[in-house]
Amino acid sequence: MIGQRDTVNGAHFGFTDRWGGVSAVPYEELNLGGAVGDDPAAVTANRDLAAKSLGVDPARVVWMNQVHGADVAVVDGPWGDGPVPRVDAIVTAERGLALAVLTADCVPVLLADPAVGVVAAAHAGRPGLVAGVVPAAVRAMTELGADPARITARTGPAVCGRCYEVPEDMRAEVAAVEPAAYAETSWGTPAVDVSAGVHAQLERLGVRDRAQSPVCTLESKDHFSYRRDRTTGRLAGYVWLD
How does pLDDT run across 51-110, given as a tens digit for each residue? Predict the structure, then answer.
């Protein structure tokens, strides 16, 4: 259920795999995405299971309506009955409030500055990498008092550069913005390495404490992959502070 978990100075990071939930094929089992065609009751049950396995109150988890952009929302609680904003990063200074990001090949980015009590979650696919969603999230954190030199960054399971094949012109467009994302597949065709691009951006921003998941979602049957399966579930990354 929780494939990877880490705690640093009271900041908690967790990334799910696909197992331990109640969703049926093709979303089996722990689909956490509410907009992929799965039974809404199953998604709700899965979100409850995942949160409780982390020791988090499911009612204190903030989700996003992700659109592959670079907009950021600063939050102090769940959205309630109102609409969920179309953003790809959320930031909070509220301790005990968990921020969640959904992925199925894109890079889930979790950030925390425990010293001032600020955390962020960002959804960085290829378009978000180019748009600058990660720098936007870090800027929003600094506006709340965070220092990039104190930020701990964790990126979760994502499609790797050896598997993310793209047309040559697309690779060139991405590499023009972030050269570190330039890649080649294991079979010798143009590719993009979004995780490498994200970590390069974080390094330039002064974020030194970084760790990257070794899991490639396309290669791992324990994780959802949109590129592999098309109709599939979504993984989640969670970050919160004590």
Answer: 999 999 999 999 999 999 999 999 999 998 888 999 999 999 999 999 999 999 999 999
- Whether the link from the prior residue into 29 is cis, omega within 30° of 0, is yes
Residue type, 153: A
CB 155 within 8 A of CB 109: yes
Q: How would you classify the pairing of strands 61-62 and 98-103? A: parallel
* Cα(16)–Cα(236) distance, integer angstroms: 6
Residue of 89, 94, 31 whose CA lies nearest to 65: 89
In CATH terms, the superfamily for domain 2-160+212-241 is CNF1/YfiH-like putative cysteine hydrolases (3.60.140.10)
Tokens representing 224? 């959802």
pTM: 0.97
DSSP label at residue 158: B
DSSP 14-28: EEE-S-SS-PPTTS-
Cα of 49 vs its chain's centroid, Å: 19
CB within 8 A of 136, min separation 6: which ones?
70, 71, 72, 89
